[in-house]
């Protein structure tokens, strides 16, 4: 009994020290990518877009609520309830992987941290860093700031599309503000 308690306390102290020693790193290079767009003289019609990654940052207030809700429903239903990570989601993902499945378990905050600060490598060390940084980010940023940052940094496929505004234009040919309920749901499913 006493030995088990001592091991538990040492483990908890070790996790606490690792958490305290994990800094929030500088953003990675992809967070700075933006498209350069040349417009016709009407100021709206695109003539040409230069970009290594297609990314147009947008504020959360410009993303329709139904699109935000679709993304939350698809990616992280308990986003507003957890502290940056979801222990139940992580446990479910671990069981799924032990049974031969793949992925899952990462919250929007964790995905934002991976996209903005870390790399996509699939190592235990990176996942632990992601978890610790996610808790710290959740304490320093509002949920709205995290969601906005996530929507502006997540990869949406179709070439090198980063961010929901570029994804909306790439898939539907219009800005995210004009997406229908169905289009928003389709984009969230991607």
Secondary structure: elements and pairs:
Elements: H1 2-21, E1 36-39, E2 46-50, H2 65-75, H3 87-98, H4 108-116, H5 124-140, H6 143-153, E3 155-157, E4 161-162, H7 164-172, H8 181-189
Give the % helix: 40-55%
The secondary-structure class comes to mainly alpha
Poorly predicted runs of 5 or more residues? none
Order of helices and strands: HEEHHHHHEEHH
The description of the largest β-sheet is: 2 strands, antiparallel
Total DSSP helices: 8
The coarse overall form would be elongated
Can you give the mean pLDDT? 81
Radius of gyration: 19 Å
- Record the strand order, biggest sheet: 1-2
Query: How many E-type strands?
Result: 4
CA(first)-CA(last) distance: 50 Å
In percent terms, what proportion of residues is strand? Answer: 5-15%
In short:
By secondary structure, the protein is mostly helical. It contains eight helices and four strands; from the N terminus they run H-E-E-H-H-H-H-H-E-E-H-H.
């Amino acid at each position: 009994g006493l030995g088990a308690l001592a091991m538990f306390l040492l483990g908890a102290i070790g996790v606490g020290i690792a958490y305290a020693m994990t800094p929030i790193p500088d953003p990675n290079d992809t967070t700075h990518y933006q498209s350069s767009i040349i417009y016709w003289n009407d100021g709206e019609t695109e003539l040409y877009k230069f970009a290594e990654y297609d990314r147009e940052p947008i504020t959360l207030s410009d993303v329709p609520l139904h699109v935000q809700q679709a993304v939350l429903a698809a990616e992280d239903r308990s986003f507003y309830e957890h502290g940056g990570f979801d222990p139940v989601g992580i446990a479910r993902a671990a069981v799924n992987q032990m049974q031969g499945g793949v992925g899952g378990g990462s919250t929007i905050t964790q995905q934002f941290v991976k996209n903005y600060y870390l790399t996509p490598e699939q190592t235990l060390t990176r996942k632990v860093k992601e978890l610790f940084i996610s808790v710290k980010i959740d304490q320093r940023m509002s949920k709205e700031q995290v969601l906005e940052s996530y929507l502006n940094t997540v990869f949406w496929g179709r070439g090198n599309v980063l961010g929901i505004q570029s994804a909306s234009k790439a898939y539907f040919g219009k800005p995210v503000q004009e997406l229908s309920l169905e289009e928003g749901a389709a984009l969230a499913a991607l």
